[in-house]
Amino acid sequence: MILATWKTIRRVAKLADVILEVVDARDPIGTRSRRLERIVERAGKKLVIVINKADLVPREILEKWKKIFEDEGYPTVYISARDRLGTSILRKTILKVADKKGKTVKVAIVGFPKVGKSTIINVLKGKHSASTSPIPGSPGYTKHTQWYRIDKKIVMLDTPGILPVKGDDIEAAIRGKPPDELRDPVKPAVELLRRALEHDPTIIKRTYGIEEKDPYKILEKICEKRHWYYKKDREPLIEEAAKTIIRDWHRAKLVFYIKPEEYLSLKGESEKQ
Question: Are 81 and 89 within 8 A, CB to CB?
């Protein structure tokens, strides 16, 4: 696994012709990295935004996100790597963006944890891909890097570039940081529950069989259903319930999605200030 440092990400950007920035279809903005985009731009390389987990979001929502990113200047493809949908369009987009006319295109996949980078790599590699490392002319890193031939025109860096997860606990949870590594998992879990109910009032009942609408009471009910209590005083293990909520978001068991209109509205307000 490539270590999650910005120095490494800059090296990956130098190695590849095209960088695929993978984001989660449920929250493309929350799982996007402006810093990565600036690094790729400064390296003079091409960037494609790949909206993964498209099977979790209606197509009209995906089309709106695609238009938003493309209006900002980024070629965008939405796929479901798990269901192997959209990968042929992704290959065509890579070749079109690279525009290398007969030369091999080197591709790297980058993104926050849990957005599905490894699944995309495995789907693109397929069963019959073969290692081609080292690639002639690749600066540095070739001793530690494995390249795989996707087809006659594309080779891919075998290891995903995992972006460092920064920000507060809420941002970190959305971006795939394991709940055991969070200072306080309760706060981001409560925020995830609040957002989930805001976007889909029936989601908690469907997912957990719980009628409550208050996030803290939902956590208590999860403890009650699973018999999670402290031995000494029988108080509910709220932290464990909170970690479950965050893991369920990462595993796509808790499924709700951010609407593009919310992003555009916030963006419009910030531009007025």
Answer: no
In this prediction the pTM is 0.89
Q: What are the structural domains, with CATH classification, of the chain?
A: 6-162 (3.40.50.300), 169-272 (1.10.1580.10)
Residues 24 and 249: their CA atoms lie apart, in Å, by 11
Element (H, E) at 271: helix 260-272
Q: What is the C-alpha separation between 264 and 21, in angstroms, rounded?
A: 21
* Residue 47, strand partner residues: 19
Asked if 108 and 124 touch (Cβ cutoff 8 Å), the reply is: no
User: Omega before 185 cis (within 30°)?
Assistant: no
Question: Could you tell me whether strands 46-52 and 18-24 are parallel, antiparallel, or unpaired per DSSP bridges?
Answer: parallel
Q: CA of 113: how far to CAs of 96, 175, 177, 178, in Å?
A: 27, 6, 7, 9
Task: Please choose, from the candidates 31, 30, 37, 28, the residue with its C-alpha nearest in 3D space to the C-alpha of residue 10.
Answer: 37
Q: How far apart are CA 249 and CA 246, in angstroms?
A: 5
Residues sharing a CB contact under 8 Å with residue 71, sequence separation 6 or more, in sequence order: none
* β-sheet bridge partners, residue 157: 147
The pair of structure tokens assigned to 172 is 């970190």
Each residue's pLDDT tens digit, 119-162:
999 888 876 555 544 444 444 434 456 888 888 899 999 878 89
